[in-house]
Amino acid sequence: MTTPHHQVATATARMRAVADAVVDASVWSMTAAEAASTLVELTKLEAQVVELRSRVARHADELQVGTETGATSTATWLAHQTRLTRSAAAGVVHLGYDLDTHDVVRDALAAGNVRPEQAVVIVRAVKELPEDLDPDLVIRAEKHLVDAAAEHDAKTLRILGRRLLEVVAPDLADQHEADLLEKEEAKAAQATRLTMTDDGHGKTHGRFTMPTVQAAMFKKMLLAIAAPKHQAATHGAGVERRPGPERMGRAFAELIERISAKDLPKVGGTDATIVIHIDLDVLTGKLQKAGVLDTGEKISPSQVRRLACTARILPVVLNGKSEVLDVGRAKRFFTRAQLTAMSIRDGGCRADGCDWPPWLCHGHHWIRWADDGDTDLSNGGLLCPRHHARAHDPTYETTHQPDGKVTFHRRC
User: Fold this and answer.
1) Model confidence over 339-364: pLDDT tens digits?
2) Beta sheet of 314-318, edge-to-edge order
3) How far is 104 from 126, CA to CA, in rounded Å?
4) In whole angstroms, what is the distance from residue 375 CA to residue 20 CA?
5) What is the spatial distance between Cα 280 and Cα 317, in angstroms, rounded to a whole number?
6) Beta 380-383 vs 298-299: how paired, if at all?
7) What phi, psi does 61 have (nearest 5°)?
8) Taking the model in full, what pTM does it have?
9) What does DSSP say about strands 380-383 and 362-365: parallel, antiparallel, or unpaired?
């Protein structure tokens, strides 16, 4: 490091030296009162250092520090030099620019009167005010949140910031909040995600992001199922109260079982009901053998019997009494029973090379119903929407292969 000459550089060197001097100092002899006051003062000092660092970072960015070494930005250079993450280094630089245009927050941070996370929240809240708001009202809003920081942490300040206009411009507050909510909800809808991964050991792990209103509805549903009254009614009085995450997780699983397939859109012409391939002896408890779901997973015999008892699955029972699967010319469309049987038999789209699962496929008449083809299993098979459309395209010819697959070739 070069010899410091600027007053900020010199002060930084002195602060480092003072900190070095107490590296090995024991704190065991501090009284409770002195330890408490010192902890508060260190927190204020940390805020002051953050303000100073951000100010220097902004100046360094204006000087394009790091360009001589090939760094693409000051943040990239800082991350490399200090081993900060790229996002953390960028945050330092951005805070410097923010504080340069928000003097009230900068002065409070420099004095150690607000915490860095409070400063970030205040700046963000002020930035979200209407662009055409009178500058004096903007300054008043900034001062209001800085004053509130003496009594509230960053989380509460974020809530107060949402209603900031009620303090400085009450007549604009409701419309502004409505506009903000519209924007947030639109972003939330775009950010909605759900991922699930089966670990191969009977558990599926996942994570989700959803809009606040749906999350509130979801949470209320789970709390109703996880409530002690429901648990006692389900498992009997005196049931052990499970930890929160486990109780909510079990409530989630129970909620899924409670949703009726009849309330969901049909998939491939059938209800979105799990279908399981099971021996009759397993269903009656005479044989212990895993059941196979139409999605490919296996479940234990006891799980099969439990779900079958509550009608939460559709069992396809071997060697047992089955529904009538052939209806000849009586009906134009394949019945639910026929489509279920096709899903077990075909395992998915019959087109060679296609991997679409059965629950996303359509039942197709190999000999068209309009050409006197029967609505029977022998004349039916599963095709995905793309291949189903091709099967009805007169420019293509359908060829049945020995292994049960079909191929399509453009007619000459």
Assistant:
1) 878 888 888 899 998 988 887 788 88
2) 298-299, 291-293, 275-279, 314-318
3) 11
4) 87
5) 6
6) unpaired
7) -70, -35
8) 0.52
9) antiparallel
